[in-house]
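Dear colleagues,

As part of the handover before I leave the project, I'm documenting each prediction I ran so the next person doesn't have to rerun anything. This entry is a single chain, and its sequence is reproduced below.
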Amino acid sequence: AECLTVMRHGFVETAKGLTSITTLQDTAPNEFLALQELQQEGGLPCRMRVYPIAPHAVGVKDLTKVGWRTGFGDDMFRFGGVKFFVDGIGSDFMGHQIADVKWTREALTEALTDCQRGGLQAIMHIVTDAGWALALDALEAAQRAVPGNLRHRFEQWSLAFHRSRLTDSARGILLYTVAQVCRARVTGEPVLEETE
């Protein structure tokens, strides 16, 4: 009840002009329940996308076992996928960079493979070089284990962005080029012929 009251007040104060919020669920089930209550009573002032933090809030296998998929819900309240903290802040109290990786290669690969297999979007917090290396290795291994699961989504975005003529601006072509190059380097696949 307290969580619901705080959310009601907070939404009144912050929702002026706000169209959507992404929330990362950790270990506070009351927050998730309060959001559901607000949605049921029509009290959500903007779209909510929920990403539980794995493995703290929920295990990926638990989500896939019961059939949760990215996109489940309605326009106002939707399950977005899973959030992974691959590493922490990456530095000590003096600002010196430290290896702050939270996963083993095997565990992250397994979790991302489960996401691929189960249709769950994965978003990751990564700030260190070691975290990036780990995440890229795990993503490549997951892609090899369950190939092509999300390829169509990138291709749809790529074609839509290209056809929208957003690439006619300097910022648009920069964003588009970076996305295309990154995808090609990770997957080893060329860009779509129409967009060259």
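The mean pLDDT is 81. Helices lie at 2-14, 29-40, 60-66, 105-118, 129-145, 151-163, 170-187.

All the best with the project,
I.
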